[in-house]
Amino acid sequence: MATISSLRIALSQPKLHFNRLSNIVWEDEEVMRTTYFAHTRIEFNGQRYMLSMPLCTASLRRMERFIPLQRHLKCGVLPKIEILRNEMTYQLPDMSCRYCDILLEPLPDALPFADALANVGDSDEASAFFAALDALEKELTAANISHNNIREENLLIDARGALHPIHWHYATDKAGGDTEAIAALRTKIASSQHNMELHQAEYAPYITTNGLDKYIYAGDMHEGLIVVESEQGWGYVNCELQEVIKPQYLWANDFCEGRAEVDTPQGMGLIDCDGNYIIEPIYESVEFDVENGWSRVCKDNMCALFDYSGEQLSQWEESFGGGYSELSIK
Amino acid sequence: MYTQEITRKHRAAFVLLLDRSTSMQQMVRFGQMIASKSEVVAYTANALITELLDRCRRADGIRNYYDIAVIGYCGERVESLLPGEGFISIKELSSRIPDITSIAFESEMEDGSHIITHHRQHRWIEPLAEGTTPMYEALHKARVLVEEWCEQEANQDSFPPIVINITDGEPTDCNDNDLLDICTMIKRTATADGNTLLINIHICSDSHLNSVIFPMQEEITHASQKARLLADCSSIMPSALDNAIHELKGLGAMPPYIGMGYNATVVELLSMINIGSRSLTQLE
Questions:
Q1: ipTM of the complex, rounded to two decimals
Q2: What is the mean pLDDT of residues A153-182?
Q3: Which of B132, B176, B178 lies closest to A207 in CB terms?
């Protein structure tokens, strides 16, 4: 599969590496990633898009089901997402050439909701956010779809105060999949307002963020560790900004319940808070599920489950879905 | 302050908060035994409840000295792990003692071989480790419980409540400010005999890490920021426990001590719980 480096190379020389998107403008030069996709913002024919590159064979399956469905939907918040087949070319280390699909999602003219939320000033502003969330929930219910990944980072807010979800990678038909996430956002708005009134950074000294500027990317603090990207790769710093897990990975996720997924040139793996491999980095994808501590691990179209300690729980089986039920536990 | 004798008229309240999130699946060494943190914490909690029951046992039966609550938290759940929703009196608990269960632990022998050892215990609490860490919700529930308890006329002159929070991680439902806020609220609740004692114990599986147990203020100044936060979230231990803590810490230790443990091993957890619950031994 193509790597984030392949994508960076292609984005810096679009004429050489893209087919339909040969005249894109890539300005912010920031490539983010999740387990399934690497994504960045681009401009193409005067319109802003989120360009996503699949990182494993399972990445596009949900979108392949969802895109035919979206064509028949009238939903104000749902953009016209396209899969561009064999859109990007990239080279393997042996210099052979490969093709890769690209997911293209138009972006509305709007600002990150997370920024707006961080500066909730008064109750009027909070009320406007509540109303915008109500409207979004209504739209999704009316269209009978679920975004399945609603969170503040995946929402934009336009000049009229309307919310626009982005990153529709996990969208499915049938409404209801976003109820909890929207409720959590409501709670967050309420607490942001409360915190603004009560604290005003009263207890700031526990985390120092001065000094993160030297990194290409720095995430939020999770379990005392901040994921950072430097020239050497992705790693983790602690709350004193010491590099406790040296930047070395192609990508690294936030820590959750003592585990984080990482990507290396040899494949994806799972590490603990000391950087020890719980699951060796040799797989195409590793998805840690915080609910039960299991990881769904895939390689060459075969999947298996591993437990919290990295012991294999199930046989390797051909698998296309995302659930555990299809994998038989040993 | 913190001198009130515990009598049937002046009962004491004890709240145990147990982190049951996914990371508690991590295996730890507990003496010769190898078990998950969730198993060790459940085992410790069950032993403590049995111990409190035994302290109340007299020739004429169980004397009602304590109100106990055990709250487990994981994922979306913050729930009472003992019968009822909040406090249960020790007398009522004594009428619902579960049967003795045999618990199997893997033990490593000196020659490196592994054997299964069985330990018999009243199993009030079963181990569980799933989901995230809703510690704020759990502390919030504890605050409501102790506040209501302190407001009751019968408890207003009692020894203040003791809340022990055992976790191996960080809350996933709040930030540092929120955590400090809710802990401050708990510590503000009080009876005429003193403020509620909040002891936070952060356990870890790596015995090579430096642990900070019942630290002095001076130790905290040089500790990590996370340990400092935990210290600010915890109570200063009453002077009645100074000798016991000094014994645990050794030479050079000078009170006052902060009721917290950071990077504590499970053995240190046991010592801390033992000392924390020692304030509940001033029985009539």
A1: 0.77
A2: 88
A3: B176
